[in-house]
Amino acid sequence: MRPFAYERAATADDALRLHEDGAYYLGGGTNLVDLMRLGVEEPARLVDVSRLPYGEIELRPDGSLLIGAAVGNSDLAADRTVRESQPMLAQAVLAGASGQIRNLATVGGNLLQRTRCSYFQDADKPCNKRDPGSGCPARDGDNHNLAILGHSEACVATHPSDMAVALAALDASVHVRGRGGERTIPIGDLHRLPGNDPQRDTVLESGDLITAVEVPPLDIPSRYRKVRERASFAFALVSIAAALDVEGGTVRDVRIALGGVAHKPWRARRAEEALRGAPAIGEEFQRAAEAELDLAEPLRDNAYKVPLARNLIVRTLTELGEQS
Amino acid sequence: MDSEVTPVHAEITLLVNGTEHRLRVDTRASLLDTLREDLGLTGSKKGCDHGQCGACTVLLDGRRANACLALAVAHDGAEVVTVEGLARDGRLSALQEAFIEQDGFQCGYCTPGQLCSATAVLDEAERGWPSAVTEDLRGDPVLDDDEIRERMSGNLCRCGAYTGIVKAVGEAARKTQAEEAKA
């Protein structure tokens, strides 16, 4: 590992001041420290932001949640208010990583974790995300667990977060403090599709610091479900965050976001549009899922994700319909 | 490796198993290497060094964590309990006893991590923390075998002593609850 300077920020201003070219913010470090050990990331300086005063979860009068960026993943999932008001968010966080890792990992870091594409994580291999212009061996290589939607010639990586998938379905937004002041980014706009510059996972600029995540209220049946290669402690092959409101047999509101299928949490807008106002029955769920997955361009070894995602959508909506 | 680069050092304090240590560490040093190499506490094991196996699990400020993923410098002032600190006054904890009773290990390499992790699992359940298999997130979870398997999934055992580990954690949970009921 390359030597690096370490600074601990006491305030957000401090963090921004300490952040310079070649510096990285450090939260829990569960992904960054590993990538440094692998030689994938080589920061000259770490600015530790884990002790900034962003460790609170606030339930606001309008029913929305304001979750500090330094809140631990375990604390988020264990919080009684979160479990009551947004159980899908707690489910998604609990579906990720292990108990040990969730204790270290922060909300901000969870959003900014990098892909687990094996070529990205191997510093000896070409990778356009790690080394722009070097190529993408995953396109014709081991791509069984990579993207089926929204990928590009340059990159077929997936975003690994479970939490971000639930946040996408919940229409959350991200509070960011940067050199130009504060701004709020809808979660759907935070992560990017790879296009020609897959080295950029998000729209954040150098020095931007995530300070909080805001989750508006949603009081309809919801659920996070994850399919993986083993029962626990593995990244998603496909996951879904879904919410469904049915009245008189008709879909009044529906939210569907998929994980493990794209470079960002994939909000299934086409499927949602197909369902709004439609009868809440299996055939319609199937039709909507297929409308969304018509967009899929599976790679050599991951075509299985298309029926998997379809079945996950149909089954989860069917179950939610029974609760609605 | 770039031979031009110079290591950066920092002074930190760690309270490890009740003893305070002032240490000068390389900023690159993991908590795991610091415990093993600087403090000679070799109970915590380096399995994968990537947070995937759990052999390095310690209690960091009362919570289980992968010591391999924690930079020592980032945990200045922390309280750490390793497997060496689980016994009190020469007496094994109820969980350690249960691992022996229930045959919760074979080669023993993953055991220090299993023990630290399971110690925290009992505490987390006590505090009502849910897991991915908890059906009702609004209620308080009960540590049945499915809950134990899910909660211990961050600790691999390549000998495959899982059956004994699940029994041991379950037995320790019941004993702890019984003692609390008495008190």
From TrEMBL, chain A:
FAD-binding PCMH-type domain location: 1-220
Keyword Coiled coil on entry: no
One Pfam family, short name: FAD_binding_5
Gene3D superfamilies on file: 3.30.465.10, CO dehydrogenase flavoprotein, C-terminal domain, Uridine Diphospho-n-acetylenolpyruvylglucosamine Reductase, domain 2
SMART domains the UniProt entry points to: CO_deh_flav_C (SM01092)
Keywords: Oxidoreductase
Coiled-coil portions: none
Domain of life: Bacteria
Organism: Actinomadura violacea
InterPro entries: CO_DH_flav_C (IPR005107), CO_DH_flav_C_dom_sf (IPR036683), Diverse_Substr_Oxidored (IPR051312), FAD-bd_PCMH (IPR016166), FAD-bd_PCMH-like_sf (IPR036318), FAD-bd_PCMH_sub1 (IPR016167), FAD-bd_PCMH_sub2 (IPR016169), Mopterin_DH_FAD-bd (IPR002346)
The protein, known as: Xanthine dehydrogenase family protein subunit M
Keyword tRNA-binding: no
TrEMBL record, chain B:
Signal peptide: none
Pfam families in UniProt: Fer2, Fer2_2
SUPFAM superfamilies, per database record: 2Fe-2S ferredoxin-like, CO dehydrogenase ISP C-domain like
Ranges for domain 2Fe-2S ferredoxin-type: 10-86
CDD domains named in the record: fer2
Record's keyword annotation contains Oxidoreductase: yes
PROSITE patterns: 2FE2S_FER_1 (PS00197), 2FE2S_FER_2 (PS51085)
Keywords from the named record: Iron, Metal-binding, Oxidoreductase
UniProt keyword RNA-binding present: no
Name of protein: 2Fe-2S iron-sulfur cluster binding domain-containing protein
Organism per entry: Actinomadura violacea
